[in-house]
Design brief:
five-stranded mixed sheet; 32% helix; alpha+beta; two-stranded antiparallel ribbon
């Protein structure tokens, strides 16, 4: 099921998207479009840590961290990333939302509009459920630049859920496997 960790940058994408996923539609919110899509996929994904709930709470949490067209489209890849990706941050307790919570990260290559990206999904766990917390999508060629800029800003001590920290964790994972 899992690919070799040494080829995450060069392996086949787990999902190919057009870039037109979840465009604005009159009468339906973005969150409802994504929720309907998740529900059409069964409403959960099977991660290495067990079943992960893909629900509106996760969509809202993710969206509140910022969203552009690429990230919006990449919501359609989340289940594939969780089920076919690589663990880049083992399940452990990290500062999330102002408190320590059990989280982990999974990453996989995807394509959007013909461009190569790495999508990272952060999964959060509590005593009741495992759920999507957020995801970020990085243009593959920009990962080293994003990680380097996060170090300049000093965000290497931030929670693993900030965009710069996610890029740094991804970059460190890739570097350690080469």
């Amino acid at each position: 099921m899992k690919k070799s960790t040494t080829d995450i940058l060069h392996s086949e994408p787990v999902c190919t998207l057009s870039g037109d996923e979840f465009l604005p539609h009159k009468g339906i919110t973005f969150a409802d479009q994504v929720l309907n899509f998740f529900n059409s996929q069964g409403g959960f994904a099977l991660s290495p840590w067990g079943e992960v709930l893909l629900d509106k709470k996760g969509i809202q949490s993710d969206k509140s961290h910022g969203i552009g067209r690429i990230k919006a489209s990449s919501f359609a890849a989340i289940k594939d990333v969780i089920e076919k990706g690589e663990i880049i941050l083992p399940l452990d307790y990290y500062a999330t939302g102002g408190k320590k919570q059990m989280t982990g990260m999974i990453a996989a290559p995807i394509k959007i509009c013909g461009d190569s990206f790495i999508c990272v999904v952060v999964v959060i766990f509590n005593l009741i459920e495992k759920r999507l917390y957020l995801h970020e999508t990085f243009l593959t060629e920009k990962i080293p630049e994003i990680a380097a800029s996060s170090l300049v800003r000093g965000s290497n001590t931030a929670s693993p859920q900030s965009r710069g920290s996610i890029a740094k964790i991804l970059s460190n994972f890739i570097s350690s496997k080469l």
